[in-house]
Each structure stands twice: as structure tokens, then as C-alpha cells.
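User: Fold this; C-alpha cells only.

Assistant: Input:
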Amino acid sequence: MEPEQIAELLTMFVFTPPHGRSWGLTFDGLAVKLRERNPDEFIRVDDSGGSVRGASMTFGITLDDEYLEGMARLEPEGVALLDCNAHLAARFALWLRNNTAPADVPVMFNTEWGIEEGLEHTLVPDTTRPRIVAAFVQHIAETDGLD
């Protein structure tokens, strides 16, 4: 499969701080950042489990005129985009790094396929969007997501 085709495949992209570090993520803080982009974004927090560990946030976000659904958890800390391609995931990773993660705490990534394969989370390169897309494509090519 060609890299351009791989970049269009849909999977879940997961973004986290490095192991042992934190972005200080809060649902309220993430909701504020999402609503700064679009005041009408869909945001719902489910804390029916009664503990922070069981709490999650689901949200909608529009990137490049594409509506995506995502979720966030505080434990383990991270944000995921569902059914997303590498181009949109790269745009989101840049937004996350520039608007949510502290400047001194990097953004790591994995995909649903990478997690299933036991691949470690990988640093989102501190570079341009096309190069981030290339890193995501390389990651997907290393998984069984192409089968």
C-alpha cells in the first residue's frame, strides 16, 4: 500500500504525556480549549463510576471541515480521536501540543492497531504537519492495520 493510501486509513489515535509525566489535564481545561476553537463543540463528561479513574469525557471537534469524535481520560491521562486518518491526527496533535500540553511535556502517540500489536507510545515529532503525518504513516505501516 502506498503512503498516501496509508495516510487515509481510519483508526483511533491516542495521545498521552510520556510515562511518568503529566499535562495536568482536566476535563474543564480541555473543554475550555475546545470551546475556544468552536463554542458549539459537543462535550460530555461521564463520571457515573463515582471515581476519577472511571471518569471520561467525550467530545466533538471539527478539523479541516471534518467532524471527529474524541475522548479523554484522566487516569491514565490521555486524549484519543476515533476513526481518524493521519492527516487529521497530525492537525489535532499540533493543536494539542500548542494548546493543552505544557511546553516542557511532549506529546506521545499510538494507534489502536499499535496498542493491539504491543507497540510503545512514540514521540510526536516536533516538526511540521507533513512530517508528523509521515511519522504516523510509518507507525501504521509497522502494525497489522494494513491487513
